[in-house]
Amino acid sequence: MKKSNKSTxxxxxxxLNEQLIDHPHTAQVPGGILELISYNESDFTIFDNLPIxxxxxxxxxxxxxxINVDGLSDQELIKKISTHFDLHYLLVEDIRNTDxxxxxxxxxxxxxxxxxxxxxxxxxxxxxxxISFVLGKDYLLSFQExxxxxxxxxxxxxxxxxxxxxxxxxDYLLYxxxxxxxxxxxxxxxxxxxQVEEIEDNISNNPTVEDFKHIQKLRKEFIxxxxxxxxxxxxxxxxxxxxxxxIEDRNIKYFSDVYDHVIHLIDxxxxxxxxxxxxxxxxxxxINFKMNEVMKLLTIITTIFIPLSFIAGIYGMNFKYMPELDxxxxxxxxxxxxxxxxxxxxxxxxxxxxx
Length: 355
Description:
Elements: H1 6-16, E1 27-29, E2 32-39, E3 44-47, H2 52-57, E4 64-70, H3 75-84, H4 89-96, E5 103-106, E6 111-122, E7 125-136, E8 139-144, H5 152-159, H6 170-205, H7 209-241, H8 252-314, H9 330-351
Parallel strand pairs: 4-8
Antiparallel strand pairs: 1-2, 2-3, 2-4, 5-6, 6-7, 7-8
């Protein structure tokens, strides 16, 4: 599969940066939102206002049945879904555990895939969310940690009769969902890139403590992003190997494309991580440079006043016999000598380019 051109990807990233849009085809259930989309090339149906027992009965053979659950607090709901699809208890535990790193596990009847969504940027904040997928024959289960409509655009594409999604199986739908999530990572990196440029400009003009705190915050974000992206590479690699043939051979190339995107993200993360280290060094060097400039100025002033203080100290002594004290123009003479010394020292420092 050829990668999207630059303008197409940029337009997609712009959409991913928008605030979550309330989806009209979702219904609130205790502890979350439940929805079933059932489709094939010629048919499309969506159910969102049924109890879980009735909704599970609406799954149709020879259709792709996508059940999406937003919110993981309703344990009874998850239990009924796991019982209906005969999910392994370890798989169910992984769905409930939102601290898991991205991974892929193959079971006898299912392919389990979990990763993090980074889908909302408000100012400089990144919103993280855990999401799990269970791929089986003719169905895909998705469990989102939080309520919201991240896949609204994809739902709209499924409605179209001409959509390629309608002509493929549940494994292709899994690819499209993972690809949308990975694309959101690009928007996060783009936002971070703008922050890095802004910090660099601030440091060059006038570094502040806020810039230092901002750099520290970015470094922490990169640590988390590395934990999110690096395991995702291994998870996708496991899917691409397709040892249990959960993925059709014709769809392997799409997952390989997502894998390439993840590799690019990892390279970008390493680059930005190095840039933040460089920013930290630039901040410290700039602060030290400004401090050195201040110290140099104070040293020059002190050096200039040393001979002047010496002369003033001599004539400030209280000896009775000091010939210059009886000289009528002694005061003005001493001021003249001090002025000449001052001018000569300033000229000398200028000549040496000390300031």
